[in-house]
Design a protein that fits this description.
alpha/beta, five-stranded antiparallel beta sheet, Rossmann fold, Quinone Oxidoreductase, Chain A, domain 1, 360 residues
């Protein structure tokens, strides 16, 4: 079969079409005939040799959409020809890829595969960062670095749905401000001077939660504006810096916490939990637990979620881009999987995000 392999570390020119054996499913796996492969910044870093050093050559690709081609032993509830999206960890830049059935998500036949390819990495990551790792509480302030990227554009909306307070996004360049702001941030700051601006916006207190994927100098400056009892979640290292040491005694003295998250590692350590989390995360932190025999409350609150993001194209061209781009296609089936199957989904257009979703 054809695949796009990284043959040496470097720029997009190191991506080469090649012929490799078609994968065979192991127990608990499926093989997917790939229609689209999502392109993430992590793959760009991998191509450059900056991210989890791989043995050359290798076929990148964290997430795909397509159709089930073959089933491995023990796989139930799926069928050949079924449309799916999957978190593949690697190998997605190919005609066929093997994936864990636990991390393969069935889609409605009407769901656009181009859009679906962009969800298996970004949406579970953003959701886990806020609900399982930082555990954002109602009213808490949240700062997100790389606010115009895939995780950044989803995280702000999930934080809003969970009742967070002030939502601050940080971007690297002026031209990214309007795009990031369109997803619901209260303030968009530039990376070069965000520390002073955060202090001004918070009256010197700092923010309760920071989602940090840059590393290096940005990590250190972020710790300066983390409020007492605040949590910084490190989930990437786009700078490639290894200098992010922090004394545990400093953390103890300043009442601050540093947490880590890697969707790739979690997919290997506990894939069952990664699959099970989306439905469980959808529970609102404001909702009173339902008593046995009590009628379910009538749903009256409406929430808006703008979904960024399918960017799927020829991988040699796509890897030159640093973030996912928007696409205007329905994603109701996959969104119900992420936010809970009871949600109703309708669509409307807006100026900055061509399709937004009205959920209630």
């Amino acid at each position: 079969m054809r695949a796009i392999a990284v043959t040496a570390f470097g720029g997009p020119e190191v991506l080469q079409f090649t012929e490799v054996p078609e994968p065979q499913p192991g127990p608990g796996q499926v093989v997917i005939r790939v229609s689209y492969a999502g392109v993430n910044f992590a793959e760009i870093m991998g191509r450059r040799g900056d991210y989890h050093a791989s043995t050359l050559p290798f076929v990148p690709g964290l997430e795909v959409s397509g159709y089930i081609h073959t089933l491995g032993d023990g796989v139930e509830g799926m069928s050949i020809g079924q449309p799916v999206a999957a978190f593949t960890v690697t190998g997605g830049y190919a005609e066929y890829v093997a994936a864990s059935a636990l991390l393969t998500f069935p889609l409605a036949a009407s769901l656009d595969l181009r859009t679906a390819a962009a969800f298996p990495t970004v949406v579970p990551t953003a959701t886990a960062l806020l609900t399982e790792v930082a555990r954002v509480l109602p009213g808490e302030s949240v700062l997100v670095h790389a606010a115009s990227g895939g995780v950044g554009t989803v995280a702000v909306q999930i934080a809003r749905l969970r009742g967070a307070g002030k939502l601050i996004g940080v971007v690297s360049r002026e031209e990214k401000r309007d795009y990031a702001r369109s997803f619901g941030y209260d303030d968009i700051l530039l990376q070069r001077d965000f520390v002073d601006q955060v202090r001004e916006l918070t009256g010197g207190r700092g923010v309760d939660v920071i989602l940090e994927s840059i590393g290096g100098e940005v990590f250190g400056r972020s710790m300066e504006v983390l409020a007492p009892l605040g949590r910084l979640v490190l989930f990437g290292n786009a700078s490639g810096s290894s200098d992010i040491a922090q004394s545990v005694y400093t953390l103890q003295r300043t009442n601050k916490a540093i947490l880590g998250f890697s969707i790739g590692s979690l997919s290997q350590q506990d894939p069952q939990r990664l699959r099970a989390e989306p439905g469980r995360r959808s529970a609102s932190p404001h909702r009173k637990p339902q008593e046995p025999g009590e009628a379910a409350p009538k749903r009256t609150r409406r929430s808006i979620v703008a979904l960024p993001v399918a960017f799927s194209t020829d991988a040699s061209r796509a890897s030159q881009h640093r973030s996912k781009k928007s696409a205007a296609d329905p994603v109701a089936s996959l969104l119900r999987l992420i936010l809970g199957k009871s949600r109703e989904v309708r669509f409307f257009r807006s100026e900055h995000a061509p399709y937004r979703l009205l959920l209630w």
